[in-house]
Amino acid sequence: IKGQTRPFYFEGGPLTFTGGVRNDSPSDVAVFFGPQSRSSITNKIASGAVDLSGVFYVCNSTMRLAVPVKAQKVIAGYYNLALVCEADNLFDNVTDGIEIGVGWAPVTADIVLKGTRQKFNVLKVNTNTTVAFKGEGASTLEIADASAATYSGGLKGDLSVVHSGTGSWKLTGAANDMNGIIKVTAGTVTLTAASRFPNLSGIEVTGNGRLVVEDAASIPASLATLRVTGGGHLKLPDGLNLTIDRAVIGPYALEPETYSF
Questions:
Q1: Rounded Cα distance, 12 and 66, in Å
Q2: CA–CA separation, 119 and 133 (whole Å)
Q3: Among 11, 37, 51, 86, which residue is least crowded by beta carbons within 10 Å?
Q4: Is the torsion defined by CA of 58, 95, 160, 90 positive or negative?
Q5: Contact between 52 and 33 (Cβ < 8 Å)
Q6: Residue 93 parent element (H or E)
Q7: What is the mean pLDDT of residues 57-69?
C-alpha cells in the first residue's frame, strides 16, 4: 500500500493474502480488513507478514491470521467480528497491543486461539463491547500490560491465562468456562466476587505475582494443581474449603493432609 494519506480498506471478500501486507510511505495510515457494513465474510492472511506502522483494523468479518503482525496497534473494531489466531506469537511486535470495540456502537468480538499462544502488551476493551477469548485446542493467552485494567468479557474453552505485566487486572465476568490454569508471574490479578471460573484446573503464582480471590464461588471446590513459589502471593477468602490433587508451596510439595491457613 503506497501513497495513501487516509485509511485504506480491503472491503471485498472473501480474500486470501499469500504475500503479506506492507504499508509504505506514509506508513502510519490505518489499514482496515473487512467491509464498513455488516457482513459474514472470512478473510485470511496465510503467508508473508503484516508490516504496518499504523493500525491493523479488523471489522465486520472473520480474519484468519497465520502470520505475525508488526503494527502500532491491533483494533478489533465494529460491529460483529472474529479474529482467529492460527499460529503462535502473532502480536509480539504490536507496540500498543489490542483494542476491542469502539465505544460509540455495540460490538461483538471473538478472539479465537486455535491451539496457539498469544501475548498482548496491552488489552483494552471499550464500552458497549461483548468480547470473549476462546481456546480451540490447548491455548495460552498472556497479558503483559503494565497498566491497571478491568476485564468483564469471557475466557472460554481450552484456554490458560498468564499475567506477566506489572499492572493490575480485575476479572469481573461470570461467563468463563476455560478449563486451563490462571498463572500470575508479575502484577496483581483479582478474581472479583462477580467472577466465575467453574472449570478452572489450576492456579500458579510465582515471581512478583499476586492473585486475589475475593469469593469462594469464583473457583471450583477442587483443583488439579496449586503452586505458589518464588515470592508469589495468593490471597484466598475466609472459609474456603479447597481440595487439591497436587500442591506446591514455596520449595515444598505438600503431603496428602488437611491444612488450615
A1: 20
A2: 12
A3: 37
A4: positive
A5: no
A6: strand 93-94
A7: 96
Q: Say if residues 190 and 212 touch (Cβ distance below 8 Å).
A: yes
Q: How far apart are CA 144 and CA 86, in angstroms?
A: 21
- Compute the distance between CA of residue 215 and CA of residue 36 in angstroms, rounded to an integer: 43
pLDDT attached to residue 231: 92
Backbone angles phi, psi at 192, to 5 degrees: -70, 170
What are the CA-CA distances from residue 255 to residues 206, 247, 248 (Å)? Answer: 20, 8, 9
Phi-psi region of 100 (alpha: psi -120 to 50; beta: other; left: phi over 0): beta
- DSSP label of 167: S
Q: Specify the amino acid at residue 93.
A: N
* 212's grid cell: 486475589
- The DSSP secondary-structure symbol of 254 reads P
Phi and psi, residue 9, nearest 5° = -115, 130
Quote the pLDDT of residue 40: 83
Query: For residue 100, which of 121, 118, 70, 73 has the smallest C-alpha distance?
Result: 73
Lowest mean pLDDT among 36-45, 94-103, 179-188: 36-45
Count of helices and strands (H, E) across the chain: 0, 28
Whole-angstrom Cα distance, residue 159 to residue 139? 5
Question: What pTM value is reported for the model?
Answer: 0.94
Burial class (CB within 10 angstroms; exposed 0-12, middle 13-18, buried 19+) of 6: exposed
| Candidate from 20-29, 144-153, 223-232, 238-247 with smallest mean pLDDT | 20-29
Strand partners for 112 = 84, 134
